[in-house]
Amino acid sequence: MTLALFALGVYTAATGSGLACQAQWPLCSDQLIPALTVNPDFIEWFHRVWAMVTGFLIIGVAGWAWLDGRDRRTRLAATLAVVILPLQITVGAVTVTVGGLVPGGYTVSTHAAHLIVALAIFTLLGFATIWGGGRGSPRLLRAAVGIAAVGIVASAVFSRAVPFVTYSPGAQAGFYATGLAGHLGLVATVAYATEAVRTGYAGLDRSTAKTVRLLAAGSMAALVGTLLLGRDLVLYTAFWQRLNLVALGVAAALAIGAAWAIRGLGAEGTTAGPVRGD
């Protein structure tokens, strides 16, 4: 739900629908529910409804973490997501009231804050979900690294740094959907590799686990840079395009490097060996 909300929010902003609803919040063009036809008012309203439902689910995740007796780190991540949720709602309200309660609210700084806080919530929910799911395993670590690498490479198809497709509102939503999938894979990789460092996995020594964690963390930092540059936070000149391309390349290379580091790790945690006949 949060990943879909991210992509939907990007699409809403890219189509200019974020400034619809006559710059009102929580009403939309003096209505609680606008005309249910595909138009800027409806897109913005639908984004708000999706955000409201997702917000209640985020609160539910925190409640589940506490009531179900999950470990301390799971409860902390889920609770922090709820704690900063009001900030995200407030910044979101500010960005759409350019001619309303907060004149000039739709600025680069509020736009960037809206993106960064949303990414923080998404990351915290990722950690809460992964930690709350029980112990990791070599199979899960391999899956996480694979998702990270595939997600980052797929995001390149939609990225504004690589002219494969026109960076239309749909392409922007696609970029963030695939990029966030890659980001979630990196979050899982860091979590599972950290567990391997602490407790060890059969067939994966702690030195390799530390290397995988470092590569995933570096890839995550570079990927966040591409996510920020994917929005209109700077005047997108040739310099920023090259920087964006470098960050995307670094993110992909480090994720692929992490996958390469555990290439011999078997599905059940043993190093894969040759199959011998009689």
UniProtKB/TrEMBL annotation:
Annotated compartments: Membrane
Record-level Gene Ontology MF annotations: metal ion binding; oxidoreductase activity
Swiss-Prot/TrEMBL keywords: Cell membrane, Disulfide bond, Heme biosynthesis, Iron, Membrane, Metal-binding, Oxidoreductase, Transmembrane, Transmembrane helix
Any GO CC annotation of this UniProt entry: membrane
Pfam families assigned: COX15-CtaA
Entry's Gene Ontology BP terms: heme A biosynthetic process
PANTHER family for the chain: HEME A SYNTHASE (PTHR35457)
Entries under InterPro entries matching the protein: COX15/CtaA_fam, COX15/CtaA_HemeA_synthase
Pathway recorded for this protein: Porphyrin-containing compound metabolism
Ranges annotated as spanning the membrane: 46-67, 79-106, 112-133, 140-161, 173-193, 214-239, 245-262
Topology of the protein relative to the lipid bilayer: Multi-pass membrane protein
Species this protein is from: Halorubrum lipolyticum DSM 21995
Descriptive protein name: Cytochrome oxidase assembly
